[in-house]
TrEMBL record:
Record protein name field: tRNA (uracil-O(2)-)-methyltransferase
Source organism superkingdom: Eukaryota
Pfam short name (any one): AdoMet_MTase
Cellular component, GO, one term: cytoplasm
Protein's gene: TRMT44
GO molecular function: tRNA(Ser) (uridine(44)-2'-O-)-methyltransferase activity; zinc ion binding
Organism: Aythya fuligula (Tufted duck)
Length: 670
């Protein structure tokens, strides 16, 4: 036995032990957050066991459905067998602290390695983890398979995490190797001892005192993590060539691998649904707002019949072939856009259609389900308006979309996807909360709910996801039940006449299309505001021996700057994404915007280009040199802070070089 590392932890008394066990749980369920060479872990079974339990004893163990491997109840049986077998051979450090009959917590998990760039993937590794809550220890016992195909304790690579109370608010967190002499490391599932002490230990100490409560579900909480890792690696290998031939202006790696991950999730979700319901045929689907269509292509290639609909055709559509069905069409929520023969509706970043997808699914057929991955915040009739300040806007919007699903009679489930995006929470409506005989009542409830969203905002229920049908009825009643007769009659055609789908040609709203004279006027006004605000900052200009002071002006918050602009200017800027801040950042020659404050840019403080700068970027910088007039040379009361030979901009028209057009990729949502 040998200590690997020790960390002192200080926190508010009794709060730390609970934080420690929460940190241990993170390491058990999501080891990839500490060890990037792992894809994740599958908890197959866990439960209470008794120290020194005899052969006749029966541990209280349960399998963990949906999150382990395919073993199901066999996982619990395997853990029970393992515990009875190893109870006589547990490490002395574990048996010495407890008396026979002491309760412990046993967890059987499988560590899932990521695919290696070359060579066959590393095999999964099983561990038996024993938690002694009373003594504050967690023991990790690696398992190996014997000739009979059964698992037994491996003699090496056993380690223990220990929490010890020193005094008052002082605690000690340590990792001890119980078999350090014959420690084996493969750099993946079996890390080096130094990694345990230098990497894992600090993370555990940090997690223990953070006491952060996540407002979202654990990643991949509704499906098997082990199966997900395997299918994802297979699909990633199968569709990796798409990255090389991607014709869109969007980032190919992000969009290809994100759609591969979403497809993986849906394929596993649908496979488990077929097992639950005894279905033989693979589910059909329609992807509303399918964008580049890659998700449709993957799902279709994997045997699911379906199609994608989007109001704008993409270049890449022509590359998929005839088996991938994509339609250029604008969806107007109404009876003309129902899908009675479709099993699943998909809304992957579906923007203004997002809240309508549960409605369309509910009215398409009783057996139609849906999957939505909300991104931009839209209500039924336009942009979503916040109602609560206690939640983040994202959390509040997710609750709204979940509420829509519940009003539509779905039991709404929430999960977190493993994708390279900040908006990775999906909502799933798979099962109904009402019998088929109540379809007309639910349809009427939906109509009233949508009407009330227009006339008076509905107060969102603050009880998370999946509140029941009765709660939703109460919500509708509280919002008002009156609905004009003529609207009840026309609701069978277009459900909301004022609904506005996106324009087919997306407008550029990043301030780049604003008239040049308007932009120049705003820039000059803001610069004069900063330069004339007292007290003024000045800085000696030592270039060329000139010791004159150069006015740097003051810094002001964006709000303070906005207060000095006229209403017409602000109104025009508000129609652009990012508004005033985007315009000022676009004019980076003049301004620097840091932490919400606006400064006059001082080019003497700009760092020179590094020699290690990529060749392409150096070429672009050289081509842009002296192709634009220096704003400071023309407008600043002290002129430019740099001499002509040092300034990248032209000091007068005689220095101007002819501009060579540099095409820039516009990274828009695809």
């Amino acid at each position: 036995m040998g200590p690997v590392g020790t960390a002192a932890v200080r926190d508010g008394g009794a709060a730390l032990p609970s934080g420690f066990w929460a940190a241990v749980r993170v390491w058990l369920e999501k080891p990839q957050v500490a060890n990037r060479r792992l894809c994740g872990a599958a908890i197959e079974a866990e439960g209470t066991v008794l120290l020194g339990e005899s052969e006749e004893g029966s541990p209280r163990l349960t399998a963990v459905p949906g999150r382990g491997t395919d073993e199901g109840p066999e996982g619990a049986a395997e853990l029970s067998r393992l515990w009875r077998e190893v109870t006589r051979h547990l490490p002395p450090s574990l048996t010495a602290r407890g008396r026979p009959g002491s309760e412990l917590r046993a967890v059987l998990r499988t560590l899932l390695p990521r695919a290696r760039p070359a060579g066959p993937p590393a095999p999964p590794t099983k561990e038996l983890v024993v938690q002694d809550v009373y003594n504050g220890t967690v023991t990790f016992l690696p398992l190996e398979e014997n000739k009979e195909g059964k698992y037994q304790i491996k003699k090496c690579n056993t380690y223990e995490i220990q929490l010890m109370h020193i005094k008052d608010e002082e605690w000690s967190l340590s990792i001890v190797a119980l078999s350090s002499e014959d420690w084996f490391s493969d750099g993946i599932t079996y890390p080096k001892l130094a990694w345990l002490g230098n990497e894992l230990l600090p993370k555990l100490a940090k997690w223990s005192v953070e006491q952060k409560h996540s407002e979202f579900r654990s990643t991949l909480s509704l499906i098997s993590v082990a199966k997900y890792c395997k299918v994802y690696q297979d699909l990633k290998e199968k569709y990796k060539e798409m990255v090389k031939v991607w014709p869109e202006v969007t980032d190919p790696e992000k969009f290809v691998y994100e759609d591969v991950a979403i497809a993986t999730y849906l394929l596993i979700l649908w496979e488990e649904e077929r097992k639950e319901k005894g279905l033989a045929k693979k589910q059909s689907f329609v992807d509303l707002g399918c964008g580049n269509g890659l998700l449709v292509h993957i799902l279709s290639s994997e045997g699911h019949s379906g199609r994608g609909i989007d109001l704008r055709r993409r270049k890449i559509w022509d590359m998929y072939g005839p088996e991938t069905h994509l339609e250029e069409l604008s969806i107007m929520p109404g009876d003309s856009h129902l899908f009675p023969d479709t099993d699943w509706l998909i809304g992957n970043h579906s923007d203004e259609l997002t809240p309508w997808i549960p409605v369309i699914a509910a009215r398409s057929s009783y057996s139609c389900s849906y999957f939505v991955l909300p991104c931009c915040f839209f209500d039924f009739h336009g942009k979503y308006s916040r109602k609560q300040s206690k939640k983040t806007q994202y959390r509040e919007y997710l609750d709204f979309v979940a509420q829509v699903g519940s009003v539509c009679g779905f039991h709404v489930e929430e999960d977190c996807l493993r994708i390279p995006s900040t908006k990775r929470v999906c909502l799933i409506g798979k099962n109904r909360t009402y019998p088929p005989t109540e379809c007309a009542l639910i349809d009427d409830q939906i109509t009233r709910y949508i009407h009330n969203r227009q006339t008076c905002p509905v107060v969102a229920c603050d009880r998370g996801v999946g509140f029941n049908h009765k709660d939703c009825s109460d919500v509708c009643k509280e919002a008002g039940s009156g609905l004009p007769e003529n609207e009840m009659e026309t609701s069978g055609r277009i459900w909301m006449p004022g609904f506005q789908p996106r324009e087919k040609v997306e407008q550029i709203r990043n301030c780049a299309a604003l008239p040049r004279d308007f932009v120049d006027d705003v820039v000059l006004n803001v610069a004069n505001l900063l330069l004339n605000t007292v007290p003024q900052k000045s800085c000696s200009n030592t270039h060329g021996g000139n010791m004159n002071t150069w006015n740097q002006g003051e810094s002001l918050s964006l709000r303070e700057v906005a207060e000095h602009l006229n209403k017409e200017t602000l109104k025009r800027l508000k129609s652009e994404y990012g508004g005033l801040q985007t315009l000022l950042k676009n004019n980076h020659q003049v301004f620097e915007v840091l932490n919400g404050r606006v400064h006059i840019r001082d080019w003497r403080k700009e760092k020179p280009s590094r020699k290690t700068k990529p060749e392409v970027k150096r070429c672009l910088s050289a081509e842009a040199y002296k192709t634009r007039l220096c704003w400071f040379f023309i407008h600043h009361p002290n002129g430019c802070a740099l001499p002509s030979e040092s300034c990248p901009y032209a000091h007068g028209t005689e220095e101007l070089r002819q501009s060579k057009t540099i095409k820039k990729k516009k990274h828009t949502q695809c």
